[in-house]
Amino acid sequence: MALLEVKNLGISFGGLRAVDDFNLTIEQGELYGLIGPNGAGKTTIFNLLTGVYKPTDGYIMLDGENITGKKTIEINRHGIARTFQNIRLFSELTVLDNVKAGLHNHHPYSTLTGILRLPKYYRVEKEMNERAMELLKVFGLDKEAYYKASNLPYGQQRKLEIARALATDPKLLLLDEPAAGMNPNETQELMKTIRFVRDEFHMTILLIEHDMKLVSGICERLTVLNFGQILAEGETTAVLNDPKVIAAYLGE
Ligand SMILES: Nc1ncnc2c1ncn2[C@@H]1O[C@H](COP(=O)(O)OP(=O)(O)OP(=O)(O)O)[C@@H](O)[C@H]1O
Ligand SMILES: [Mg+2]
Q1: Gap from CA of 39 to ligand 1 centroid (Å)
Q2: pTM of the entire structure?
Q3: Which domains does the chain have, with CATH numbers?
Q4: Which helix (H) or strand (E) holds 62?
């Protein structure tokens, strides 16, 4: 059974068909790319997958469960975590607390336990600290754990967002242009980290990118979106050599 199965997904905004008849199947452990020019509908697909928008057509199955039309928080609990095209960190909190904010969404004690500071609260908090620090180590951010998030360089803020998304222990991680605004060295390093997360955590990742050269290095399969519709899909090299795809990109 595929981890994610999307069938005939569609949404309109007024007269604009932003996503039309979108189909996607992703297997557990895959690193899958979604590419396309500006305004193609990539972020809208993430918004549909995470319950920000409700589709007008189609359905979304995650690990055998129908999650179509569910609320964002429920979908997150079902196992989809995401990062955003524009960084959304708690800029006034520390790096560590940003990751813990992801963990808190899933904390195993009741609010009352937290308020009353019962022993379970301290035990769980200690475990959360340890888990958050482990994640920060993976991203090379452990030395900056007590920095204010907004004081990190841009490339590290982007990595912190991914660490925070992973803190919820998702089945599927959605990354919306994670390399946007990065310099070439930061981009290279980020790509290595994404590959590491997939290989070491066996994470399934759907990666949106604007720049097709960038995804071609790390994704096994791709879907190319154009004007809300699938232009091409399949194995990366074949897709990138597809004359339709080349024409769409040259015409940009
Ligand atoms: N809430 C909304 N209301 C109206 N139109 C919207 C809304 N969200 C997206 N759109 C439109 O849907 C189309 C697809 O937008 P989307 O943000 O998904 O593109 P994208 O592929 O992510 O582009 P980019 O590479 O610029 O991020 C665009 O024409 C956009 O203006
Ligand atoms: Mg976008």
Answers
A1: 5
A2: 0.91
A3: 1-79+170-252 (3.40.50.300), 91-165 (no CATH)
A4: strand 57-62
